[in-house]
Amino acid sequence: MEKMTGTEVVVAKCDCCGLTEECTEEYMRRVRDRYSGRWICGLCAEAVKDEIVRSEKMIGTEEAVNEHMSFCKKFKTRITPPKNPTQELISAVKQLLLRSLDSPRSSPVRKPGLVRPESCRPVMKSGS
Questions:
Q1: Backbone angles phi and psi of 124, in degrees to 5
Q2: How much is the pTM?
Q3: Which of 21, 39, 41, 42 is nearest to 10 (CA)?
Q4: Cα separation of 44 and 52, whole Å?
Q5: Residues 64-71, mean pLDDT to the nearest whole number
Q6: Contact at 8 Å (CB) between 3 and 28?
Q7: For the chain, how far is it from start to end, CA to CA, in angstroms?
Q8: Measuring CA to CA, how many Å separate 53 from each of 47, 61, 64?
Q9: Which residues contact 13 (CB under 8 A, 6 or more apart)?
Q10: Which residue would you say has higher pLDDT here, 35 or 113?
Q11: Closest Cα to residue 55, out of 47, 45, 76?
Q12: What is the Cα–Cα distance from 70 to 63, expressed in whole angstroms?
């Protein structure tokens, strides 16, 4: 963590996911007070709140933080960076497009035909 003095901006790394955020020291102190001395980024703070709400038993903030940190740790250890991320992204988008083109639509999308203004309507004359 790069530290400055006073109310200047501090760059802090989340104890859960590792994301870095810029914030004031005062804000960092309030977050650490709320989460038992741990720095939790905004995304993980929302996940902790969700953990509390979704839990079948009544759990406190400390237990919810521990659950979320455990999830983040498992998630980080399971994922290895791809060897060729650009190629994998292109391949994934291609698969998504092919799948969406092959799947039948529940409600067909109808594109409106050409609409001609009155002045452009063909006129048919009979008998000349």
A1: -105, 125
A2: 0.54
A3: 21
A4: 12
A5: 91
A6: no
A7: 90
A8: 10, 11, 10
A9: 1, 19, 20, 39
A10: 35
A11: 47
A12: 10
- How high is the pLDDT of residue 65? 93
One-letter amino acid of 104: P
Cα–Cα dist 26/10, whole Å: 10
| Distance in angstroms (rounded) separating the CA atoms of residues 45 and 20 | 14
Report which secondary-structure segment, H or E, holds 52.
helix 42-54
Residue corresponding to tokens 């994934």: 92
Amino acid 109: pLDDT: 55
Q: pLDDT digits over 16-54, tens only?
A: 988 889 999 999 999 999 998 999 999 899 999 988 888
User: Which residue type sits at 45?
Assistant: A
Sign of CA dihedral 49, 51, 57, 62: negative
Quickly state the pLDDT bin for 96 (edges 50, 70, 90): confident
Dihedral, CA atoms, 27, 31, 37, 43, nearest 10 degrees? -120
Task: Report how far residue 91's alpha carbon sits from residue 97's, in angstroms, rounded to the nearest whole number.
Answer: 10
